[in-house]
């Protein structure tokens, strides 16, 4: 208990005092980042350090949480640091890494980092690729798939090599179970029609318990946010410590109250010993049993590492190892612990707890199926696996990636159709109640994730209506420094249209300038000029005094704030010509475009601003598919065009 | 030979006389369809029928081609027919299916159909999902993933159930090999560092041979198109028949020249008999051998079903079964046959031939590795699998989906990192020479696929430059029927901007009208009016005399042509008000937007037309992420917003 407490305490201390952004799983924030929202501090170097050491404490401390979410966050942090050429604050930057210094490349790198995290956590490279594509990215390109795939392949090779070195057990738990963490390839091979009904039941249970889990965590997070965590860091640490003590007491105490069971008759073919030899991992744990040929079924899952507990729950050829009473006890206690632990200020993943909960009720259903259809070749472990899939499906609402991860961690491809079936049911049931865990948590944290589907009422709205009566703040092309400062202080818009006048006196929208770029300009003062006229040079190109890479917003550090800008009275009287620094062709939509279309544009292209403009008065030209096939226009004359597109 | 000839002849006859669009694999055309190009006839009901019966003939006739591509095409055809509510021509339409009648839903359904085809062909449901996402679709939404996943799950359950019924072999070859077609899960489990070098070599060979295959098929397709196939259907049929005769002669004749080898000592644990008992499938085929304890290694792969040949090549515990000479002979002959067969007028897939070619040189490399590193636990079958992956990677350039398919058809997850490695190398090597097989074939067929990455020179081009000096053909809002007819006849544009005048006399672009919609209007005549004035009704809404579902372009039938429209002289003097029928908010871009941006817009949203308009004179508003979170605006006041996006 004391060791657990010490570990958890160290984790909570690191998080509260050093890296507050490292609390929780980090997946909602990463999802938000890839959706276009920068949550403060989520990719800092200190967050990375806090996440690594914090999860060592929280996972090692035996809390009801997993290491998978934190590993995803860790991967994303590393990727982001590489993407901005190391961290400048700690003097770890490298010049050649600066090639990645663009927003888009960095987002791609972070996506790869997420995939690497999942691939490393589950030793599931394909699952990692799919997780990154299905769960975290918002827009998707084939090049990205190729890059993510490459990352995952490297992870797989490295993990395998490392496990080869650790073969003889000299690295502790690392590598236990081999490359396939919970191998059940020797389990059930076939299934009959009658089994589909109990499997569907597992799907329904998974959907219900998953949705309930999401709902309870919403309530508890809300309560923590509005009440408990407002009282300061000390309360946060005490809370975690109490949870740790309760977890230790329950994990150790409950199995003590459970009577030991005598071992089943040994089957020499299965290779499973009862009770397991001391110092080994496996089924049939002898936990303070009076007789040497007895084992404690509750201790086999409760007083154990999570990996080993799951392996025991998934195990085949161990029919009737667990009593219904023990499974039910464990389910209720662990479910409660998982709900209570969720949202405390330690790094915490929800994958492994989900698998634990799911496999418990799955095994419970499996027990009934085994006793009901006596003659069939049914393994309780198969049902445990399906249960795990169903709970994760019911809570996180992933489909393809979860399916592939489940197959990759258990190495039983023949169960794939069943996993798919169970996932479909549990996701559908869960969707009837609430949204997925990550979406709900993102919403609670105020991260405005754009869902993939526009809301129904957008169909009847136009772009103009969405802008509301919000006043547009313009900049002229050449603007006085004092005006810039005033405008930036008076609102918190992130982008401003820039207007110029033609010689005939008409106004013309010439682009969009970002707040962050204006701040860089104000801070450096290099581009201030005395004349209120545009600074056309004789050669026709505009002189740019700034190195353009300075404008790339550093995600992993805080960026410039308006309070960092210090200007003299002389500076305020000067002017800036914005033309070289603006985005000359922001995306525009006509005022009466349907909001559904605008939404799709926004999400598919990952935009942050769209300008709403009046209907055009004339059309200069039309671009069709053929106009975009530049290279082919020259040599395709000989090819007869069968397509009807023109 | 005669049976093969008869089967192939029937296939070629069906294709040339009944369903010409069913020739080849169909994947480039489907890819084009989902990219936004309708190739004529590709999704017709007769194409479906031709594809099914044609591939029975061509695959059954023993040609060097596979059934996987045709199955993908078949799936897409079925999906498209469901999507337009059955086929009207053959009176098989159903009213309730008409709910799918929108372009977008039909494209989604076709994507699902492709996934179902792959899932059924390889019994690889996850592979099917990934194939559809990686290879065929151009744009991608999470809802689509969920739907595709559902389709694949159903396919998996149905295939498994069907195989359960056929267990005792009463359905012939169907179900042979079980749900995992080429199970090698009892093969090599581990690999050492030294093996990575020969595996990398396999990757390089795969890239080279794959690129060569693509290049040779380009030449031969070009030659066929410009020379041979211009001579009519009879030449096409004769060509296929000659290929069939050659294939039969080589498959039967070459093994005859090969001396038989005496059987290796029997290993009772492996369960492999030598020679295999008559009427069974498996290794060690006795083919006209004088001694009963002998087998013919060339016949084991050449005079065999393709499925069984691949199983033999992948098989473990059969070291030195094949001589290098036989493997080399088979490789050269089969490679040549596959190149020659590609592009003949029969339905043909390239997956299985690719696996055959790849596994042959893979096994060849494996032979050398086995003799070089004598002490290691190396299986030649592992190298055969990697060879297959490398050739497919080098030719088709798929990554994630191919990887998952290879794992799903062999059930050996532990080889996944190796498959990934080999694929990465072979794809990289192949990319150095030419594009993927499907892209090259699409280009040859004049299907203007938009690649995922814009061309480099687009960076310095503007939208206006892409339009060139092409004249824009306008329609006024109310247009004379004679003018419509004249304009439609004088060009072959598919979309026309519509211009209206405001009361102050300014022109205004009010939308885009499609050629196909104009043709429907001309044919039905229901909306003709005598007055040249807009037909505003008193209630403010426009009276629509047409059922809007009439405008959905039927993909699976030919659609209306300008020649189908018959108008009297009276009709020509009447007017149409286009306002109710146009697309009121087509996507527009300012004239000086970078073409790279336009390209991304085009591809990500799957557009067919973009209007290029002058720069806007003013900005009505800005839409940011927050404006699109409609639902949350009301109840999110209590939530503190941590994000910096505003």
Can you tell me about this structure?
Chains A, B: Residues 461-528, 582-641 form the CBS domain. Chains A, B: This is Chloride channel protein. The structure is a homodimer of 646-residue chains. The first copy, chain A, is mainly α. In chain A, 50% of the residues lie in helices and 6% in strands. The first copy, chain A, contains 23 helices and 11 strands. Chain A has helices spanning 2-17, 27-35, 45-60, 68-83, 103-122, 125-136, 142-165, 196-226, 233-257, 297-302, 306-314, 324-341, 351-372, 380-396, 400-410, 416-431, 437-444, 463-467, 481-490, 515-524, 569-572, 595-605, 630-635, and strands at 261-262, 294-295, 475-476, 478-480, 495-501, 507-514, 528-529, 575-577, 588-590, 609-613, 621-624. In chain A, the strands form 4 sheets. Chain A has a 3-stranded mixed β-sheet with strand order 3-5-6. Chain A has a 3-stranded antiparallel β-sheet with strand order 4-8-7. A two-stranded antiparallel sheet of chain A has the order 1-2. In chain A, β5 (495-501) and β6 form a beta hairpin. In chain A, α8 packs across α16 (416-431), α8 packs parallel to α17 (437-444) and α13 (351-372) packs across α14. The radius of gyration of chain A is 29 Å and the shape is elongated. The model of chain A is unreliable at 632-646 (pLDDT under 50). Chains A and B meet through α6, α7, α15, α16 and α18 of A and α6, α7, α15, α16 and α18 of B.
